[in-house]
């Protein structure tokens, strides 16, 4: 187990290293373009060359990359060109806001999707199964912006129950989280539900479940003590990997509802050309993606004895 974790960790670090090199090459290989972004489009060539000399851009490319990587490891990505503050401070604040949104999302998503998936998989082919499957496919087929538009028209303009934006201008408000969380849950719960349903249906047709039922064990006990544990192995992996999808889904939802999180920060940086913020956001996004894969692999190994002892 320790060896497996070590291998996964080394692979994760290698991926981060490769991505960081590609990222640095894309954004900082052209030194004059970097100076132009920092000093503005109307700066002279002399001003750009002076700035490059003062900030260590006269060094060889690999030397600059090593220095940049050393600062990135400590969280130093420079100052934002748009907000004129350290990127690390800006990033921490936005990640905290996105973390709150993500936490509430998972608190609702996990019990809802697992419960519906188990109910559907218990009776494969029944009306219960077909109804849950239809709802799951329907909600997953509708993109986030369409769901957000529909819910805003319903809860904001028709019923006047919820605010239309989640900018938190008057301080933190749980009420402003409702619509963004609803959009994320409605779009994603169908996928997790379908995966749980498929896993549960497969477990219910296995020999040990049939043997337990033929022995006369109570059906509820068969489900709770035998089927459920094995059926939840695959959904666990899927739920952890939802962090990757959230990186793209959050951009749409946060921008739509003006929520000051990681997604809006990344989009604003891309539109403004804030290269230091873009670099930091990409590195964080890649870290979350590879770390979620790492957690998924280790968790799957712990939950599945056939892998653990093989």
UniProtKB/TrEMBL annotation:
It is a multi-pass membrane protein. GO terms for cellular component: plasma membrane. Signal peptide: none annotated. GO terms for biological process: transmembrane transport. The keyword tRNA-binding does not apply. Keywords: Cell membrane, Membrane, Transmembrane, Transmembrane helix, Transport. It comes from the Bacteria. InterPro entries: MetI-like (IPR000515), MetI-like_sf (IPR035906). The keyword Hydrolase does not apply. It holds the Pfam family BPD_transp_1. Residues 95-296 form the ABC transmembrane type-1 domain. It is found in: Cell membrane. SUPFAM superfamilies: MetI-like. Its main location: membrane. The chain crosses the membrane at residues 9-27, 100-120, 132-157, 177-194, 231-257, 277-303. CDD domains: TM_PBP2. Belongs to the binding-protein-dependent transport system permease family. This is Peptide/nickel transport system permease protein. It comes from Thiothrix eikelboomii.
């Amino acid at each position: 187990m320790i060896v497996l974790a070590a291998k996964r960790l080394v692979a994760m670090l290698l991926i981060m290293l490769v991505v960081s090199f590609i990222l640095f090459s894309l954004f900082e290989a052209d030194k004059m373009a970097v100076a132009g972004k920092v000093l503005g489009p109307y700066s002279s060539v002399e001003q750009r060359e002076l700035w490059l000399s003062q900030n260590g851009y006269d060094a060889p490319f690999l030397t600059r990359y090593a220095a940049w990587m050393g600062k990135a490891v400590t969280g130093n990505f420079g100052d934002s060109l748009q907000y004129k503050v350290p990127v690390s401070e800006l990033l921490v604040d936005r990640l905290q806001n996105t973390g709150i949104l993500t936490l509430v999302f998972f608190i609702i998503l996990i019990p809802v999707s697992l419960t519906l998936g188990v109910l559907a998989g218990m009776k494969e082919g029944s009306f219960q199964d077909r109804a849950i499957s239809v709802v799951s496919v329907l909600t997953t087929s509708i993109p986030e912006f369409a769901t957000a538009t529909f819910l805003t028209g319903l809860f904001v303009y028709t019923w006047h129950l919820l605010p239309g934006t989640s900018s938190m201008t008057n301080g933190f408000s749980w009420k402003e989280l409702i619509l963004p969380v609803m959009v994320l849950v409605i779009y994603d719960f169908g996928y997790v539900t379908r995966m749980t349903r498929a896993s549960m249906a497969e477990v219910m047709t296995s020999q040990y479940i049939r043997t337990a039922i033929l022995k006369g064990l109570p059906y509820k006990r068969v489900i709770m003590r035998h089927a459920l544990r094995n059926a939840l192995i695959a959904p666990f992996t899927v739920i952890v990997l939802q962090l990757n999808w959230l990186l793209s889904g959050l951009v749409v939802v946060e921008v739509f509802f003006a929520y000051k999180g990681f997604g809006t920060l990344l989009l604003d940086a891309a539109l403004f050309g804030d290269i230091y913020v873009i670099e930091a956001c990409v590195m964080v996004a890649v870290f979350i993606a590879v770390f979620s894969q790492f957690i998924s692999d280790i968790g799957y190994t712990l939950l599945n004895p056939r892998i653990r002892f093989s």
